[in-house]
Amino acid sequence: MKNKKIHIIGAGLAGPLMATYLAKRGYLVEMYERRSDMRKVSQSAGRSINLALSVRGIQALREVGLYDKIKPITIPMKGRMIHDLDGKTHIQPYGQHDKEVIYSVSRAELNMGLMTLAEETKNVKIFFNHKVESVDLTKNILDFGKKQTHFGTVIGCDGSTSPLREAIIEKSNANFVKKPLGHSYKELVIPPSDSNDFLIEPNALHIWPRGDFMLIALPNMDKTFTCTLFLPTTGEISFETIYESSTIIDLFQNYFPDALELMSTLVEDFQSNPIGNLASVYCKPWHYKGKALLVGDAAHAVVPFFGQGMNASFQDCSVLNNFIEKHNGNWEKTFEEFSSSHVENGHAIADMAIENYIEMRDSVNDEFYRKRRKLELELERQFPDCFIPRYSMVSFHQIPYADVYCRGQIQLDLMNKYLIENLTKQQLHSNITEKLVPLK
Length: 440
Known about the structure:
alpha/beta, FAD/NAD(P)-binding domain, six-stranded mixed sheet
């Protein structure tokens, strides 16, 4: 087997998963992680946005044999619980039935489970506290500052600031754009009740939509909720202007009064936890010859509003694993086909994640949106072979993201036309069956 040893940069979520796929194929993997081993050193607070696990990620975890171990630490979320300004709430189901749910899971617990699984193969060695400063794709060198190592084949699972991506861009003149969202985030918490129970409904993703900004909350196994406040980075109501105790309290009293009642450590958490930046990464291609390949956020970082960052990264690993089998160790063919066939999917989910932010922070309470959501669920019920809502295509199916994007736009146009012109059921059926080919 050519190039028996593979180097991986990054031991976050995608790195250990990809290492496990490779190890199961007999490859020896050396993985380099800039952080300490989180199984031995507690991670810093304020950087653990909960993860929403859905079918694409579940499939990859099943393929490597980890899902059954992870499932007990997941909490099903059946829909969006919308919190209005007056304190009223209503649920917007994600799908048609109880099986169409997404799952809240601890990033840290999942990450630790993936690292342990990779090491248990005996073919994976993780080097912690090894930050890759630069990559030389001519001499095949990973530079850690004080030391270097040579590689034959390297896979970058090293996140949105990937040094491997910088090397690929420099070497191949790849197209690259990083688009800041203009909004940032800060992590907060809703503690458990005095009787150690959830203070709000645990089987939902809670959203406080407020137009240009929002608060969300996802449940944890310890009966807390991890809350994330998304605000403009600058402006009248932004992280630039809200940082003193009085302005923090004013913000929540004015826009999130029911959440304020639940957040006993709000000011302390707000002032001590860091502000996280949000941006989308668009890159093409994702590889350089048979030497280097980007996976996950390094290739296509997305904002977190479709809950697909991890799921897309895990699907990358699954798809890449199939190409490795197809080309039997020919890395140039493997990387070329993976990159050429999958880049458009990375771009599509990046676009859809941005669009979903607008939906979550604003549209969910719009009457036209709610009518359209009711319509699309009815269309799926009546025409399941031709119509699946875009959210369902992303979260409950494995239809390529690029196909979802195109099909979703057609469906959106049809529904808007129906709602605006009040078409009859017969006309609607004709439009659906003429414009949409059956799903495969």
